[in-house]
Amino acid sequence: MNKIKVKLCMGTTCFVMGASELQELVDILPEKFGDKVEVQCATCLDLCSSSSEGQAPYAMVDYTVISKATVESVINEVERKLKNGQE
Amino acid sequence: MFIDIDCAQEKKYNQNTYGDYFLSKRYPDKDALIAVLSDGLGSGIKANILATMTATMLLKFVEAGADMKMACEVIMNSLPVCKVRKISYSTFSVAHCSEDGEVKIIEEGNPKFIYISDGKVIEPEYTVIDSDTFKNRHMHVYKLKLKLGDRLVFCSDGVTQAGLGNPELKLGLRRSGLMRFLLEKINDTPDISSSELSQFVVRIAKNTETDRKAKDDISCCVIYYREPRRALIFTGPPYHQEKDYEYAHEFYESKAKKAICGGTTANLISRELQIPVKCNITRSVGKLPAVSSMEGVDLVTEGILTLTRTVEYLENGFNEKEKDAAYELMQFLLNSDCIEFMVGAKLNQAHYDPNLPIEIEIRKNIVKKMTKILEDKYIKRVTLRYI
Ligand code: FES
User: Fold this and answer.
1) Pocket of ligand 1 contains residue A40 by CB under 6 Å
2) From CA B118, how far away is CA B298, in angstroms rounded?
3) Which of A47, A52, A60, A74 to mutate to test the pocket of ligand 1 (most atoms within 8 A of CB)?
4) In 10 A of CB B353, how many CB atoms?
């Protein structure tokens, strides 16, 4: 099974909108899901400049964009993906 | 050429202040600087006052437009003599250095400076001007033309007389001893900075003293003509997107040290040149995103927040506990002499979203502010280019 890739945006817009808190995920995700997930940070996901994608902060779980990301919403998405993958 | 100048000092053992005084000032509009080293008679606070006065007056004189020779003569002729020891209250060396290499030096009473070029010591010619009022006082006037890589080393007699009376070194370190150390050091590290070389001399002098206790105030000033250290900072995406490749390429090819400030900017360069940006997953320090890295680039940071914080540090000093990205950027800037900013003029609409909890300043304004501080407070040469 491929690892799920989580990308957290640490660009200006996302950072001031609360992405700094998302950094907890760097520790939480591996603790919770082990090596089924891989966490990366991004300098800017280039989502902030297009308003159609919702609102910062942004995170990506594989190819799914999560807008207004929170620690919970990212974890939920990872869980959902893992479940789907097992089916 | 860039003139790298610095001075290192050590107090006489058991004294709480310096008896030598060093002063230097750059005049960016004239591409020149003036440096003065004065040694006050004796040590401690009395010597400190004498030396400070002599150096400050000299600098003020010359600054006010007085001819350097005349200013020095006035001071030489008016410095009083100590009643007890029958010697001058203070001695001095003044150097006026232009960036094109023209150097004028006047010495009165201090040890002769050492002129090092191509790993050798040169003993230049000088003219002697005798004092009208004091028989045993005269100044040496030099006119030199320095070239890239040349150095001038000035010191107080605390250096040349270090170790005086030692069993092995009856006459102390002397000028010849100092020369040997200097040539050896420069041979080992040809690019050594003025600050390191002057500290080296002070260390040598101190080590030569019995029990490493300085018997006189020790000062060493080094002037080094070198290629300026250049830095290039790319911040913000260019106004015309079709120019992205061109600018990214120009940036990357530059021989200067390079920094990128801005996530979008980093992505753009990465995309145009096919070089990945590695974003650090270590926790951001303070309230700033952590630095990232890219091959061939010396520093990659987030944009506006980091720039804003860097301006604060440059203005008020760095007092935080942890070194954040703005600290890194500040160091990057301070370790350069000539700084060029490539400022992309495209605005990021997201930054002006009323939903943002803080107001994000316009990039142009921050960079302008930074430029002013770097020029005025840190005497850097800064060029701004809007792209
Ligand atoms: S800052 Fe997060 S997408 Fe641009």
Assistant:
1) no
2) 31
3) A47
4) 16
Output phi, psi for B22, to 5 deg.
-120, 140
Q: What is the pLDDT of residue B285?
A: 65
* Residue matched to tokens 């940036």: B251
**pLDDT tens profile A7-51:** 999 999 999 888 888 888 888 888 888 888 999 899 999 888 876
Alpha-carbon span B383 to B230, nearest angstrom: 11
Mutual angle of helices B325-334 and B304-316, in 10-degree steps: 60
Q: And the tokens for B31?
A: 């591409």
Phi, psi of A32 (to 5 degrees): -80, -40
Per DSSP, B254 falls in state -
Average pLDDT over residues B34-53: 88
Closest C-alpha among B285, B283, B281 to residue B322? B285
Query: Between chains, do A11 and B263 touch, taking CB under 8 Å as contact?
Result: yes
Residue B165 pLDDT? 77
Domain spans, chain B: 2-226, 230-386
CB B179 within 8 A of CB B114: yes
Q: Which CATH class is domain B2-226?
A: alpha beta
Q: Does the complex come out with an ipTM higher than 0.95? A: no
Residue type, A59: A
Question: Is residue B370 over pLDDT 90?
Answer: yes
- Looking up tokens 């930054």 gives B351
pLDDT above 70 coverage of chain B, percent: 98
Burial B61-82 (b: 16+ CB within 10 A, else e): bbeeeeebeebbbebbeebeee
- Is the shortest distance between the CB of A47 and ligand 1 below 6 Å? yes
Looking at the predicted structure, is the pLDDT value of residue B81 above 80?
Answer: no
How far, CA to CA in Å, does B213 sit from each of B18, B68, B170, B175?
14, 36, 16, 20
With contact defined as beta carbons under 8 Å apart, do B40 and B51 qualify?
yes
Q: What is the mean pLDDT of residues B201-222?
A: 89
Look up residue B306 and give its two tokens: 């980091």
